[in-house]
Amino acid sequence: MLELQHIHKMYNPGTINEICLFDDFNLTIEDGQFVSVVGSNGSGKTSMLNIICGSIPVDGGKIMVNGVDITKKKDFIRHQSIGRVFQDPSKGTCPSMTILENLAIADNKGKTYGLGRGTNHARINAYRELLASVGLGLEDKMHTKVGALSGGQRQTLALLMATMKPIEFLILDEHTAALDPKTAEIVMQLTGKIVKEKKVTTIMVTHNLRYAVEYGDRLLMMHQGHAIIDKAGAEKKAMQVDDILGTFNEISIECGN
Ligand SMILES: Nc1ncnc2c1ncn2[C@@H]1O[C@H](COP(=O)(O)OP(=O)(O)OP(=O)(O)O)[C@@H](O)[C@H]1O
Fold it and tell me: Of 56, 181, 183, 219, whose CB is crowded by the most CB atoms within 10 A?
């Protein structure tokens, strides 16, 4: 179970640009839950992910995993149990290395030895099978440099790499936003399949309201550092894109937009 308890986060404290983003923000995510997170620009979605991953510190409150306080744990330690995919396909993969080398790096996550251990015959066959399961023909490009792949192929690889080793949390930060609709659909279907198979606790930030409705068993809508919609189970299943749009419109009117 992941808990954000009484989180307080300010940016640029003591300056003219001071922003208090989170003031007593609380969120509990059960094991295996797939949470879709939507919200307007600047509502705090990425900051929330960064706080969970330890990419930014908090000014107050605790981050707990299975009852253990990880607030002070460094990001590289937390990443042993976290897979994260970013909006930019160039993050999370190494462009100057081949697909095979990238997969070997992901396979050896947390270990200190080189790539050799990841590239024996058995591993290569396993990587080929993994790539073939996606259906994009990546298994025939194992010796191609990742920088030469399309954005969609690269994001697919990033997703496979992030979930290759057992992880507790999969963090998806607008991971389909830079993809064309058809490729985004392929990456989302793969996401759904991986989450289901691995039963990994997942938090997916997206501006695609259809994906937020179709995927996941819980939906959060963020606004100014608060979760203003939080629906799970049957309530989440019943949600339609129009319901979220309606709340977006109400907020816009309140904010004078
Ligand atoms: N490193 C930072 N320094 C200062 N302010 C920041 C920083 N990161 C985020 N903010 C501010 O915090 C607020 C929330 O930003 P955040 O990126 O978390 O929002 P978001 O919901 O992910 O937005 P978007 O949908 O545009 O990605 C914004 O007002 C933003 O300007």
Answer: 219
